[in-house]
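Hi Y.,

Following your request, here is the sequence exactly as I used it, all 162 residues.
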Amino acid sequence: MKIKTEGISEVVLEVQSMERAVQFWSNQLGFPIMEQWGYDNGQFTEESNGIWATWLYVGGPTRLGLWLPRMFSKAEQKMKQLNISSWPNLYDEGGVHVHLALHVQKQNLEGTLILLKQEGIDVKIIKEANETRVYFKDTESNIIEFYTKSMADDYTKQVIKK
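Below is the corresponding structure, written out as tokens. Let me know if you'd prefer a different format.
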């Protein structure tokens, strides 16, 4: 690899209801809330009347952000199309996210499935030769995947071969 990284630092999912999303991710799935921010006049703030962003710790080097939609003005939308070095502000909200996959070790999969069932979460399970994928939707219709394949193990072996 040209750039050595340690994995995903953060993933952000857009949510329509912060209360509903936090209930699901923190209360139902059990990921702890680490920070919550407000958003006033185009700036993130910790002294806001409402919660606009929530950060949860999801294991390893990774946190998950739950963000309410930002309404960009026409001028901001135009600015977002320019090279990033031309931006006077940070426009760190991109396109629609496809899905989020979190690694679950094989020995923890059964407990994960039991929890999802206890919480009444509909799942689709795909068993492959040596791995299992568990798909479900969060309360905001984001597709979430729990995957038993360790990219650190699998990809490291493949990169070394090259």
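The chain has a mean pLDDT of 83.

Thanks again,
Q.
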